[in-house]
Amino acid sequence: MAQQESSPKDMAVGCGCLAVLALVLVSCSAVVFGGGDDEKEPSTSFTSPTVSVSDSATPTMAAIDESARTMCAQSALAAAHHKVGNYDEESDAQSEAAMDALGSSVPEVQRLAFGPADTRSARIQAWCRANVRVKTPKVKKAAPTPDPYPTDDPSDSDGGGVSDVRPGAFCSPGGATGTWRGRVYTCKGPGQNRWRR
């Protein structure tokens, strides 16, 4: 005997019938098990609703631990550094805030430590504004760090020479002088100018 495939319409009708049957059974069971002929007088007393406190909403001040306070202080420091343009220091403070969030015993604070850095710092700042009062520290613009590999300016040395040259490399202007490992080289031809002795 070959089986016929059910069409989507037939399947929908079957599911609808099952749903109606389930509703009928549930309502019958409520009538059968829900009570019998015992009718009770409706109660005229009023019970006041109870108030429950959820830990997932805003934690109480007792629930905010020292790690959460330190996280908020680091977050405020990061915001202050951003305001004056100290972006390296801002990044360091944001990383410290995330580490403090991980060290907290409050689960809500621990969850703040995860996610991309830009949204993480925004979420930490928002949580701190809502839960912890932190005074924003005043910071100054950081002094620029010296370049570990300064470029030599030819106009700085005496006579317009260059202090460090590579022998055989092309150069200009002709007649300029420079040194390589303590030896003096001159920019000269024949042909194209190169650093020569």
Please outline what is shown here.
This protein is mainly α and 197 residues long. The protein contains five helices and three strands; from the N terminus they run αααααβββ.
Word description of this protein:
It is a single chain. This protein is mainly alpha-helical and 197 residues long. Among the domains are: 66-131; 158-196, no CATH class. 41% of the residues lie in helices and 7% in strands. The protein has five helices and three strands; from the N terminus they run H-H-H-H-H-E-E-E. The protein has helices spanning 8-33, 66-84, 87-102, 107-111, 117-131; strands spanning 177-180, 183-188, 194-196. A three-stranded antiparallel β-sheet has the order 1-2-3, with no helix packed on it. A hairpin with a 2-residue loop joins strand 1 and strand 2 (183-188). Helix 2 (66-84) packs antiparallel against helix 3 (87-102). The longest helix is centred in the first third of the chain and has 26 residues, at 8-33. The protein is elongated, with a radius of gyration of 39 Å. The protein starts with 7 loop residues before the first helix and ends with a strand. Mean pLDDT is 76; it is low at 42-57 and 154-159.
Write the layout of secondary structure elements.
Elements: H1 8-33, H2 66-84, H3 87-102, H4 107-111, H5 117-131, E1 177-180, E2 183-188, E3 194-196
Antiparallel strand pairs: 1-2, 2-3
Region (Disordered): 137-178
Strand order of the largest sheet: 1-2-3
Strand content: 5-15%
Low-confidence stretches: 42-57, 154-159
Largest sheet: 3 strands, antiparallel
Radius of gyration: 39 Å
The share of residues in helices is 40-55%
Listing every helix as H and every strand as E from the N terminus to the C terminus, the arrangement reads HHHHHEEE
> How would you classify the helix and strand content by structural class?
mainly alpha
| Count of helical regions | 5
Q: How many beta strands in the DSSP annotation?
A: 3
Shape: elongated
Region (Disordered): 137-178
